[in-house]
Structure formats: structure tokens, C-alpha cells
Amino acid sequence: MADDALKAVKSADRVLTLFELLGRWGREMSHSQIAEALDIPKSSLTQLLRNLVAREWLRFSPLTKGYSLGPAIEALARRAMQARDLVQLAQPILATLTATVGESSALNLLKGDMAEVAATVLGPQRLVSHMRLGDVAPLYATSGGKVILAFLPREMQEDYLSRVVFEPSTPRTLRDPAALRRQLATIRRRRTGHSIEEWTPGIVGIAQPVLTRAGSVLGAINVAMPRLRYDKAGEVRIIEALARATAALSERVEGAPPA
């Protein structure tokens, strides 16, 4: 068991070192050049390169017999840049949203099995909900987290639901996978999620997804407020403002709002 774990770590280390090498090199490298640079036996390297090419982490040119970083690496880099751009583009939209509804707002992004506050604007009221940058919460407990979860690809959503352990933080925190599934279906249908004192006592959250044109979820924008200021008339106004905010952010990221 220990030997298997050691081999797995060694293989992962080789892959990362290979990516770093090709990134620094800046052009194609041959099988022999890689083997020499990394001090890897050619027989071991052959299978590693074959696997990485098959999964598009590397490119192989039959003409030059050279290897370079592949489209999967490029896609990963684009996603990292997109997340950074998303935060920058969201800030003025959140400011407008908060000014419109008079409550704190935030951009939430997926981070593992959690929702992370990536950008936020504090409301003008004396009694406000504080959403601090970097705060994380379980996907099942917050409005933004539930919205992200609802719009994840089905395979990712099912993987999460099959292993999630519910840890109540308030008496209203969801504890039942079936109840969560019902909420997720409603969120997908209405494109709006709620958390009523499920993460923080006395706080209500309402969120909507930020989607690509293809319908992939980039994140969620939420508004949070003390429950004493939560009413149906205000909820309608917030949902309308959230729809404008999420559409505006999608448009800025992709050039057009999702259908």
C-alpha cells in the first residue's frame, strides 16, 4: 500500500515537472530531450507521454516528432484567467446591484465542494450582512452555493450529492439529500435560489446564476439581508435586479447574455 502511494506521488511529480519543463522551453521537445532533461528511463517516459497526449495535456507532432503543451493545459489557463476577469468585471455590477436594492451583494465561485465569496459590496444600512472576501460555505447551505450546484453538469452534481455530509450550522440547515434535490430542481426551473437562515442565523440570501451562452455556470450573484427586512415585495425587486446583474455580467464576460 505504501509502495503504491509512493509510486503515485512520483508519477504526479514527473507530470508536473514535465509541464514546467515544456512551459519554460517554449517550443517542442523530442522524446530523447525530455528523457534526458528529466532523467526518466525512455521506457517509462513512453507510456507517460502516450497517456498525456491521449488526454490532450500534451500535443505530439508526427512531422517533427516533438511534444508541446496541449489544449487541455491551455483550457485550464483560460479558465484561471476567466475567473480573474469575472471578479474584475463583477465589481461595478455588484455596486449597482447594492445601490439598487440597498443590501449587500456578492459574487460566489465554486471552490472544491464550497462556494467562495470572490467579490462583494457592503450594503448601506446600519444592520447589514457581512460577506467577506474569501469566505467559504458548503454548497448546500447558501443561496449562491445552491445555485452553483443546481447548474453544475449532471455528473458533477451527482458526484457531490453521493458523498456530501450535511453539517448543520443553524436549525434550518438542510440535512436531507432528497430535500436538497427538490430544491435544486426548483432552482434550475426558476433560476433563483434561497437560503433562509440556513447558514447564518437571522440572514436571508437570494441568488441567481452567471451562465455562459452554452448554459455552463461561471458562478452566482447573491443578495443577503437581515430577515427582519425580508418580505415578498422586496424579494420580487431583488430577483428582478439580480436578473439584470447576472445578465450584465454574462454579457461582459462572453459578449452576449445567455439564451
CATH architecture of the largest domain: 2-Layer Sandwich
Helix/strand structural class: alpha+beta
Give a quick account of the main beta sheet: strands, pairing sense, barrel closure.
6 strands, antiparallel
Uncertain residue ranges:
none
Number of helices: 8
Quaternary state, please?
Answer: single chain
Could you state the order of secondary-structure elements as H and E? HEHHEEHEEEHHHEEEH
CATH superfamily of the largest domain: GAF domain
Architecture overview:
With 259 residues, the chain is α+β, with helices and mostly antiparallel strands. The protein folds into 2 domains: 2-69, Winged helix-like DNA-binding domain superfamily/Winged helix DNA-binding domain (Arc Repressor Mutant, subunit A); 77-254, Beta-Lactamase (2-Layer Sandwich). It has 8 helices and 9 strands. Strands 6-5-4-9-8-7 form a 6-stranded antiparallel beta sheet. The protein has a 3-stranded antiparallel beta sheet with strand order 1-3-2. α4 runs antiparallel to α8 and α5 (143-151) packs across α7 (177-190). The protein is elongated, with a radius of gyration of 23 Å. The mean pLDDT is 89. This is Transcriptional regulator, IclR family. Residues 9-71 form the HTH iclR-type domain. InterPro entries: GAF-like_dom_sf, HTH_MetabolicPath_Reg, Tscrpt_reg_IclR_C, Tscrpt_reg_IclR_N, WH-like_DNA-bd_sf, WH_DNA-bd_sf.
